Amino acid sequence: MKHLRHEGVGSMMTRTRWLGLLVGAMLLLPAAARGQDYNVGAPSWEFPIPTMWGDKDEGYYFAAEALFFRINNPVRSQILAVRGFWDTSGDISGRGELVDALDAGGNVIQQLFSQNGPPGAFIGSKQAALSSNEVGRDKFEPGFRITGGYRFRNGIAVEGSIWYLNEVQNTAGAGIVPPGSTGFAGPGVGRNNASSFLSAPFFNFTPDFAGPAQDVVSNIYPNPVINGTGVPLSPAQIALITQFGGIPVAAYGIWNGAEDMTLEFVQRAWNAEVNCRLPVNQTDCDRTYVIAGARVMNIWERFSFRTVDLDINSNPSPLNTATYYNTWENQLYGAQVGMGYEYYIGQGFSWSVEGRVGLFLDYRKTQIQVERGDVDPFTERDDVGLSPFFQGGAFVWWYPLEGVQMRAGYEFQGIFNVRRSEQPVSFDLGKLDATYKDMFLRFDGFSAGIAFIF
What we know:
The strands form 6 sheets. The chain has a 10-stranded antiparallel beta barrel with strand order 1-8-9-16-17-18-19-20-21-22. It has a 3-stranded antiparallel beta sheet with strand order 7-2-11, with no helix packed on it. It has a domain of about 250 residues: Beta Barrel (Lipocalin), CATH 2.40.128.90. About 10% of the residues lie in helices and about 50% in strands. The chain has about 450 residues and is mainly beta. It has 2 helices and 22 strands.
C-alpha cells in the first residue's frame, strides 16, 4: 500500500511540474497566432507619397513614360529636279548667224543669234539636283505615354493609355551653286551659268503657274534680221542688252529655271487604347497574364516640294512660288489580344516580355495639292482596308518601394497593308494622281518610366 501511495504521489508531482511548464510557455508565446487575424501595422517610416503598402493589393495606378521611337520612312528614290532648264518655245538659245547689237552711237554691245533655237531643247548639264530619297531617312524622335487604370484584388486590371510622338521632320534642298562651282567634282554652272538653274519636269499645268515673265537671258536678236543686219534696237532694248548681255525672257513654268527647291517630309503619330489584363498563373517568382482590348491609332505623313522662281532681278514673289503637297493619313481602329510573362530576379528586379496581335480597320485618306499664292488645285481620295498588326516588347523592372514601379525596355510594332507612297510626286498636274501602295509600317524604339499604385 505504501508502495502504491508513493507511486500516486510521484505521479501527482510529475503532472504538477508539466502543468507549470505549460503555463510558462503560454505566457511567453504571442497573444494571437491566427493568420487570418494578422494585420500589418504602419511602417516605422513612410515615403511622402500616398502609395499602397501592407496588405492592400488593389487600387488605382498611374504611369508616365518617356519614349524614343522611330517610324520607318516609306519614301524611296525619285529624281525630282535637274540642273539647267528647258527652252520650251526656242526663244532662249538661238542658232544661225551672229548679228551685231548696236547702241545709239553705233557701237557693238553684244553679238546675238539671228534665229530661234529648236523648241523644247534642254540647256545645261541635266545633272540630278534633288531626289526624294534625300528626305527618306528613319529618325528617332522623343514622345510620351500616359497610362491609368485600376487593379482589383483578384489580379484583374483595367487600364487606358495614350502615347504621342513628336513630329518627325526630314528636309533637303538645292540652290544655284552646283557641284564643281566651289572646287567639288562636277560640271559647275556650265555655259552661260545654265546649270545654276533648277528644273523639275512638271507639265499639264495652267498659266497660273507660268512663272516670271523675265526669268533668263536670251541670246537671240529681238528684232527682225534683214540680209544679216538687225532692225535697230529701241532704247529699252539697248538698256537691257547692256545690263544683262541679252533680252530677259520667260523660261515657262515656275519649275523651269528656278533658283531654290526644298523638300520636306513630316510624320506624326499617336495611339490610344483600353485594355483588360487577366492573370493566368502566378507564383512567388513569376507570373503569366493575358491582355485584350480596343485600340485606335493615327499616322499622318506629308511630302512637300517647294519651288521658288526668282525674276531676272532676283526678286521673289508669292505668284512665282509653288508648293506641291502629297499627304496620306491612316486612321486605324481595331482590337487586340496578347500575353505577357514576368520573372522576378531578386533584390527588387524582374524582367518581362509581352506580345500582342490584332486587326485594324484602316480608313485611308490621300490628298495632292499644288499651292501658289492664291491658287491651290487639289484632289482627295479615301477608302477602307484591313490591316493586321503585331507588337512585342522586352522590359526590365525595378520595385524600389511598395506601390512604386520603374520600367525600361525595347518595343517593336508592325502594321501591314498601310497606305503610303514610295515615289510621292506626280508630275502631271492635270491629274494630280501619285502612286500609292499598301505597305508595311514599323514603330520601334525605347521606353522608360515610373508607375505609382494608390
